[in-house]
Amino acid sequence: MIQQPIHMSDKKDGERDGDAAVVVQTRPKTKRPPLYKVLLLNDDYTPMEFVVHVLERFFGMSHAQAFEIMLTVHKKGLAVVGVFSHEIAETKVTQVMDFARRHQHPLQCTMEKE
Ligand code: TYC
Questions:
Q1: Residue whose CA is closest, atom 10 of ligand 1?
Q2: Which residue, among 39, 37, 38, 64, has the nearest Cα to 52 in the 3D structure?
Q3: Ligand 1: which residues within 6 Å by Cβ?
Q4: 34, 94, 101, 105: which could join 46 in a potential S-S bond, CB 3.0 to 4.6 Å?
Q5: Are 11 and 51 in contact (CB under 8 A)?
Q6: For a substitution probing ligand 1, which of 38, 54, 56, 74 has the most ligand atoms within 8 Å of its CB?
Q7: pLDDT 10s per residue in the chain (114 long)?
């Protein structure tokens, strides 16, 4: 006897062809790298002008911007001075800490995960 092709119309409700593939589209995983806040801390001894210079030199701020952020740190105790990848944040912290130490100021700069 000659086999006839099976049509879906031949099947009862709920029955499916065994080889009917189900393709589920998954969204591509594009995980962004974590970001880190770089914080500048207040102290009683580092001169204001030195802090302004640090913010201009290492964080690319204008003089006015740098002065404003320096005053925020002075009044509030600390401020976020930038948000970067782990590697860039670490470099900024090292640059600021080395520069402060070379000038014998106790200025502290740290980073924390955002
Ligand atoms: N408090 C310091 C002063 O009165 C100024 C200062 C500002 C120091 C910001 C550190 O991160 C700092 N000379």
A1: 42
A2: 64
A3: 40-44, 46-48, 51, 70, 73-74, 107
A4: 105
A5: no
A6: 74
A7: 344 443 334 444 444 445 567 777 788 889 899 999 999 999 999 999 999 999 999 999 999 999 999 999 999 999 999 999 999 999 999 999 999 999 999 999 999 999
